[in-house]
Amino acid sequence: MASVMVKVKQKQIAQLIAHGKRLDGREPNDYRPIKIEVGVIEKAEGSARVKIGNTEVLVGTKVDVGEPFPDTPEEGVLTVNAELVPLASPSFETGPPDENSIELARIVDRGIRESKAIATEELCLEPGKKVIIVFIDVYVLNHDGNLIDASALAALAAIMNTKMPKYEIVNGEVKKKPGYIPLPIRNYPVPATFAKINGKMIVDPWLEEEQVMDARLTMTFDKDGNICAIQKGGIGHFTVQQILDAAKIGQQKSADIRKLVVKE
C-alpha cells in the first residue's frame, strides 16, 4: 500500500509540473526559503549552516600548512570533502564515500576553484615548499532535495567566515604570529540547480521532485554573472534552448541568493 501511495504522489507531482504548478505551491522558478548562519562551529576556523526548505547542510573549514602541488608550486591548496550523514536520510549509509558524496564534493570544489574564489597565490609561504591548505568539509544534516545548492552556499559562507593564523618563515621553519586574518576571498560563486520533469524545467527541486526528475542541471555563476562550472546529472537530456533558458534564469537566481551571503 505504501509503495502505491508513493507512486500516486509521484505521478501527481509530474502532472502538476507539466501544467506549470508544483505540489508545494511554488512557481517553477521559485526557491524554497533560504536561511544562512555563520560561525556555528566554535573550534573550526570557519563554519556555516544553510537551510533551503528542510534541506540542511553544515560546513566547517580548517587551515593548515603543507606542501604545494608540483604543478602549482606558488599556490595554496584547496580540498573539499562531503559526508552524507546516515541520520540525514534513509538512503545514506555508513562507510567510505559513495559516488553521490564524491560528486557533491567535486561540484562544490569546482565552483570555488574555477571562479578563483580564494586567491590561492596569497596562500604561498615558501614557493615549492610551504603553502597554506584550506580544508572544506561538507556535512549533510537533513536531505530534502537540492543538496548541491545548499552545500555550495554553505561552503561559500564558511570560507568567507574563515580566519587563518598569520604565518611567517623563520630560518626555514613556519612560525605562527599573533592574531588572525581572513582568507583572501575575491569571488563569490553561487549555483542554481534545475530539474527536468515531464519536459518542464524547475529550480531547487525538493526530494520528491528529484525522485521523478529525468535529469538535473547545475550552473554555477561568479560574482559577475559568468558561468564558471556546469554539472549534469540523471539519464535524461536537455535541449539547447533549455540550457540557454536555465542560464538566464540561473544567473538572476544566483545574483539574488548571493545577496544573502555577501552583504554590501
Task: List key phrases describing it.
264 residues, alpha+beta, Ribosomal Protein S5, domain 2, 6-stranded mixed beta sheet, 5 helices, 12 strands, elongated
How would you characterize the overall build of this protein?
There is one protein chain. The chain is of the alpha+beta class and about 260 residues long. The chain has a single domain, classed as GHMP Kinase, N-terminal domain (Ribosomal Protein S5, domain 2, 2-Layer Sandwich), CATH 3.30.230.70. Helix content is about 30%, strand content about 35%. It has five helices and twelve strands. The strands form three sheets. Strands 1, 2, 3, 4, 5 and 6 form a six-stranded mixed beta sheet that branches. A four-stranded antiparallel beta sheet has the order 10-9-11-12. It has a two-stranded antiparallel sheet with strand order 7-8. α2 packs across α3. The model has no long low-confidence stretch (mean pLDDT about 90).
From the 3D coordinates, which CATH architecture would you assign?
2-Layer Sandwich
The fold-level CATH name is Ribosomal Protein S5, domain 2
**Helix content range:** 25-40%
CATH homologous group name: GHMP Kinase, N-terminal domain
Query: What integer value in Å does the Rg equal?
Result: 20 Å
> N-to-C terminal Cα separation, in Å?
53 Å
Number of strands: 12
Mind telling me the CATH class? Alpha Beta
Helix-strand category: alpha+beta
What order do the SSEs take from the amino end to the carboxyl end, as H and E? HEEEEHEEHEEEEHEEH
Q: Count every helix, treating DSSP H or I runs of 4 or more residues as helices.
A: 5
Number of domains: 1
Mean pLDDT: 92
User: In one word, what is the shape?
Assistant: elongated
Biggest sheet details: 6 strands, mixed
Uncertain stretches: none
Q: Give the DSSP E fraction (strand runs of 2 or more residues).
A: 25-35%
